[in-house]
Amino acid sequence: MAQRDIERVIIGCKKGDEGCFTQLVDIYGRRCFGYFYRLTGNRDLSEELLSELFAKLVEKIGSYGGGSFDGWVFTMASNIFHDHLRFKQRQTRLLDEHSKRIMSQSAGAASGRDHDADKLQMALGELEGDVRELIMMRFYSQMSFKEIAESRREPIGTTLSKVHRGLKKLRELMG
C-alpha cells in the first residue's frame, strides 16, 4: 500500500472511521501477528498480544504526530511484548518467593508435621515455577483444568500436559 493511502487511512482513523480501522487491521494484522509469533512461539499468546496492540492503536491513534507509521506501530508492539515479559517475570518471582516462604515455614515446623508432607513440600520446591504453580492451582485451589487454562490464557491441552509432566516429576522426586 502506498504511503498516501496509509496516510488517508490514518486520518480516517483519527476521525473515528470504523472502515479505516478495518483497513489498518488488514494492513498490519498479519505482519504484527508474525512479529509476536516469532517472539513467543505461541499462537494463542500472539493473538492476545495482537488484540491488545489494536486496542492500543484505537486508543492512541490521535497521538500519532507523523513520521514512520510502521515504526510507531512496531514500537507500540515491542512495548506491549515487553510489558507482557515483565508481567510474567513478576508472576514467577512472586510464586518463587511464596514457595520459598512455605518451604521455610515447613522446615521450621517439621517436628510437628508428618514426614511425607515435608517431603512433598520439598519436592514441590524442586519443580519449575510454572509447573509448581499449575499443581498448586489444581490441587490446593481445587480449580478445574478448564479454569486453570482460562486463567493462564493457554489451551487446555497445554495445561493438562504440564500438570501431567509435573506430577510425573513429583513421583520421581518422592521416590
Protein described:
The protein is mostly helical and 175 residues long. The chain has two domains: 3-86, RNA polymerase sigma factor, region 2, helix turn helix motif (Rna Polymerase Sigma Factor, Chain: A); 109-174, Arc Repressor Mutant, subunit A (Orthogonal Bundle), CATH 1.10.10. It contains eight helices and no strands. It has helices at residues 3-14, 18-40, 43-60, 69-108, 115-126, 129-140, 145-152, 156-174. It is elongated and about 70 Å long.
Layout of helices and strands:
Layout: H1 3-14, H2 18-40, H3 43-60, H4 69-108, H5 115-126, H6 129-140, H7 145-152, H8 156-174
Beta-strand percent range: under 5%
CATH architecture of the largest domain: Orthogonal Bundle
CATH topology of the largest domain: Rna Polymerase Sigma Factor, Chain: A
Helix coverage percent = over 70%
Structural class: mainly alpha
Shape: elongated
Low-confidence stretches: none
N-to-C span: 62 Å
Number of strands: 0
- Number of helical runs? 8
Number of domains: 2
Question: What is the radius of gyration?
Answer: 23 Å
The level 1 CATH classification of the largest domain is: Mainly Alpha
Q: Helix and strand string, N-terminal first?
A: HHHHHHHH
- Tell me about the largest β-sheet: none
Tell me the name of the CATH homologous superfamily of the largest domain. RNA polymerase sigma factor, region 2, helix turn helix motif
What is the arithmetic mean of pLDDT? Answer: 82
Task: Summarize it.
With 175 residues, the chain is an all-alpha fold. The protein is built from eight helices and no strands.
Quickly list its features.
Rna Polymerase Sigma Factor, Chain: A; 2 domains; mainly alpha; about 180 residues; 8 helices; single chain; Arc Repressor Mutant, subunit A
